[in-house]
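Why do we bother with holo predictions? Because pocket geometry can differ from the apo form. Keep that in mind while you read this record for zinc ion.
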Amino acid sequence: MLTNNKEILPDSLKLEFLRKLFFGLAMDTALNALTPEQMMEAHRFFWEKSLEFGIRSKGKDFKKEEITSRFTPISHFQKKMNCKNALQKCKGTDCFYTNPECAILRTRQQIEAIREAIFDMLEIKRVET
Ligand SMILES: [Zn+2]
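The structure, written out:
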């Protein structure tokens, strides 16, 4: 099993994510360098930030669906990547261990979707897409 250790994603990288986020810059270069394990942590980081920003900007009116509705269904990636894992396993973390390309593809899409949602919530202007 992978350890759930804060050191997986160094603070310097988190700050880089936030800097790029607030300046509306593309994440590609920052995300391309990540290991599957770091990608999982990056997803968690963006997800937590989006909930925080959502609640701060909309209060009780904030719904997680504003973010999750932008996610492409996992089945799309499962098919596209010819993933042999059952859908439930593909949706979970199994693919990070057995088929990292599959897990990384959908995780990146979700991070991009979360980023778009944050742009809308905080009215950040996209400089690069
Ligand atoms: Zn998969």
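The CA atoms of residues 14 and 45 lie 8 Å apart.
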